[in-house]
Amino acid sequence: MNHKEALDREEVIDFVMSCWDEDAGAFGAHPDHDAHIHSTLSAIQILIMQDALDRLDVPRVVDFILSLQQESGVFSGDSFGEIDTRFLYCAVNALSLLGQLDKLDVEKTVGYIRKCRNFDGGFGACIGAESHAAMVWVCTAALAILDRLDEIDHETLGWWLAERQLPSGGLNGRPEKLEDVCYSHWVLSSLSILNKLTWIDAEKVTAFILSAQDLEHGGIADRPGDQPDVFHTQFGVAGLSLLGYPGLNDLDPVYCMPASLIERMGLKKGWQALPRRTN
Amino acid sequence: MDELPLYSERPEWVDVVPIPQYQDVDALAPINYSEEYQDATDYFRGIVKTEEMSPRVLQLTEHIIRLNPAHYSAWQYRYRTLIALESSLEDELRLMDAFAIEFLKTYQVWHHRRLLLTALRSVDAAAAELAFIARALEADTKNYHTWSYRQWLLAHFNDEDLLWSGERAWTENLLERDVRNNSAWHHRFFFVWGSGVRKGDEDREEILRRELTFTKEKIALAPNNPSAWNYLRGVLGHTGTPYASLSPFVKPYTATSVEKIDVVDLDNPVPSEGAELPCVMALEFLADTFEQEGGSQIPKAVETWKLLANEFDTMRKKYWEYRIKEALQASEP
Known about the structure:
Chain B: It holds the Pfam family PPTA. The complex is a heterodimer of chains A (279) and B (333). The radius of gyration of chain A is 18 Å and the shape is globular. Chain A has 279 residues and is an all-alpha fold. Chain A has helices at residues 9-18, 37-49, 58-67, 85-97, 106-115, 133-145, 154-162, 182-193, 202-211, 230-242, 259-264; strands at 20-21, 26-27, 251-252, 257-258. Helices cover 61% and strands 0% of the residues of chain B. Chain B has helices at residues 35-49, 55-67, 72-84, 89-102, 107-120, 123-139, 144-157, 167-177, 182-193, 204-221, 226-239, 247-250, 280-293, 298-312, 317-330. The interface between A and B is large, with 45 and 52 residues.
């Protein structure tokens, strides 16, 4: 939304660094929390956006990330062992941002994603799991980073994603579930990566996201009438950006970061958002 | 009800040095912890530092995860303590049963159970676990982690008689209560087609017939059910069966009203009374059938896609126009 200076840079950097877990060589979600791959990715993304990557002990972080990959190719989130394609995406994204993708066993990683592909063309959190829009996004984005979008049946998946749009205009995450603003990010980002954003009704989903705003206190909720939160606000704004909503900066749907930044880093992939409207 | 004293007030904890969270840190977005939670986690950090693994640690970690079921470090440390103390993992499972129902949507609850089952290595425990999962799903029929956990359990222990054999009846019961449960349909695909051949299901032609009959029946009951149509497509795709073999079944669903019939065709159940017709998914299926047949059938596919684009599924207009364009291009000499 072009208000990067709303949060003080030094304070943000200091907070991120205070989440460093010296034992593990990575970041936890909060000071004194054990390192986790999700918070490690977030830390890297924030440091990059604040132009403070020099504060990072890159070799240690890379070691931490790689240590989480299992034999099957999937990644666990931490030493606890929970596995999920979301963590696989965090690992691939983080390594890519650090310019360390060459350290990754790509075939092993892609092989796992391939096994998560379901009969409906979608992807789940692990082998055998139900197709879910959030998992579709992490798998699609990870494949995009690894230049392996050939693993996807673009037409079938594109159709499955388009079918997430309900009569209200909002998007759901699986058949017969309720629409939710956060799916605006996962579904629209996935469609954008597959260059099929035109397959949904942009006007209707835009209207749905906007109707989920709290016009008195600000922010966006999961659906109209509910209480807003930071999570749904971020994903609502992300969705609107991809839909060409005027006044917003371009979002890179692969990395979920500012498009201009990713482009400057030489990491831009061949995705397509809707043209930015002027009014 | 008396409030329990803080750990800092309990004499039996006086030997532990509590460690506060924000040492030398000016937090940017500090979490507004309750005094109870702060106290408990201060003591947790204290025992982690000294690597204590004792019964009181089990008490403390239980307290923390009740306050914050997502505290993955507390879960992890609890598990390690259970193993170190050689505690009864079965007792732990029973303790967690009540817990899980309350905190269903938390990943860690299910992950902890998975660790316990893995350590127990008992098919009987796994069978009891299937019953527990079934109860948990009563409360939240589409819980993603619960279904995923069930699949893991079945595949990991892989016992036909004690575990796999009950799946079909159980899943069918769920679909009877809610034919639109996508998770249940997905699970059916998993145990019929995606996890080896079930005992008794060796005749794959018979299985195909059985699954098609089942799916058609459910479509007749509630035609506008994406899960059933996705399942149908999945089965046909998996077995390499042409869509055209289902045309007699699908056609009535593309009409604008339910045709009155005198003779019931069990192989081709018609839409139930009151069904909203034409069924959009049936039109989509029909168009795909024409496209699959190719040649002279392409214009019929185009006609059907035009109906969808302009009348019955205008939300996805651009998608249907893409299908038309692709098919016409492909059929050009």
